[in-house]
Amino acid sequence: MASSASQHVVVVALSSVSHIYPWLALVEELARRGHRVTAAAGEPVRGLFAESGVDFVGHETLLPDPATGRAGGLTSIPADAGEVMQLFLREAQAQYPHLARAFAEDPPDLVLHDPGAMAGQVLARAHGVPAVGLAIMPMAWPDPDAEPDPRLLAALGSADSASRFYELADAWLADNGVPEGAHALQTYPHATLSLVPRVMQPGAERAPENVRFVGPCLSPQRLADRSWAPPADGRRVVLVSLGNSFNDRPDFYRACLDAFGGTDWHLVLVAGKYAGTDELGPIPDGVEVLARVPQLAVLESAAAFVTHAGMGGCVEALWYAVPTVAVPQGIDQHGNAARMVELGVGAHLPAEEITPESLRRAVEAVSADPAIAERLARVRAELRAGGGVDLAANAVESFLVG
């Protein structure tokens, strides 16, 4: 499907690699179809769009730089979800003046936005154009006949921090022409593309009509990346990664080295700033300690994945039918871990139970379970038939021409 004429699509993003990768291929496809696409985010992520055909409007960000781990006085994202929402609000307040100037004489025809990037909703309202959310984690919507999902409620963090967020956000939104407030925007979503697979969305069958499930939109470039190769000795590969936000865990990395070093496993340990330093001690045989990896390339060969259970990692593990051991750190990760266990495709190992022995036992168990392998094969087939980039781009164009 193609629109009748090229139009200007602005995508307002959070300055986080894990928040951009899920939809990067979508905006690249829109640009390939002839639309003018402009991404707006913090300067540290400019490089993600360098070869995408997408223009970029940058700003100074409050969020940690993915390369240095530091920006705006922060070295990591808070674990409490209410505090995270307050941080994203401050980011939106700092970002919006840049957007207002950048698009005053060059307005968008449609705004795509990360659900956490409220500046996008304000920009769309200011220009009277559609706003379409890009959902990269499970959403919550009301159901008068069902009890609230406790996993989604737990993700709100402390009551005080969440209440403070809504107080501050409602005032800012009202000052900028969005009087219905943050809770209404979140609970009764406007047009939304969900890049979360239906199997990972609690209550997917109750989704409002304005939520369209388009499935994972994995980047063709990432899928084709072969900059990592499996070990020549044929050892089983276990990938360990805690993502970009909650990864300051040298104790955990040492436990992984003790669990898999010198065994019949080949460990690929993503250790962020600890890679290449002496802080983890001697690196045993059969171990790669890296700051970052082409995760899809590793997962394609992996027999198991020890993950913080961010939605991106969960989806990518399901895409390659890799069994998981989830060690969630915060925000939505506990709910994602619970969902993976509920689907029967992995195990949950609480932080307080992590030892070299427990890690090794959990990985051995999930990788050797034929029932897990069978369920993963079914889920992988469902994900790969879900639509992806073309379906998502068609949906965006329907909002443009509709």
Any overview of this molecule?
It holds the Pfam family EryCIII-like_C. Belongs to the UDP-glycosyltransferase family. Keywords: Transferase. InterPro entries: EryCIII-like_C, Glycosyltransferase_28, UDP_glucos_trans, UDPGT_MGT-like. It comes from Actinokineospora bangkokensis. The chain has about 400 residues and is an alpha/beta fold. It has two domains: about 220 residues, 3-Layer(aba) Sandwich (Rossmann fold), CATH 3.40.50; about 160 residues, Rossmann fold (3-Layer(aba) Sandwich). The chain contains 14 helices and 13 strands. A seven-stranded parallel beta sheet has the order 3-2-1-4-5-6-7, with helices on both faces. The chain has a six-stranded parallel beta sheet with strand order 10-9-8-11-12-13, sandwiched between helices. Helix 2 runs parallel beside helix 5 and helix 8 crosses helix 12. The two termini are about 15 Å apart.
Q: Main sheet: which strands, in order across? A: 3-2-1-4-5-6-7
The 3D shape can be described as: globular
Name the helicity range: 40-55%
Question: What is the CATH topology descriptor of the largest domain?
Answer: Rossmann fold
| CATH C-level class of the largest domain | Alpha Beta
Number of strands: 13
Protein name: Erythromycin biosynthesis protein CIII-like C-terminal domain-containing protein
InterPro entries: EryCIII-like_C, Glycosyltransferase_28, UDP_glucos_trans, UDPGT_MGT-like
Family: Belongs to the UDP-glycosyltransferase family.
Pfam family, one: EryCIII-like_C
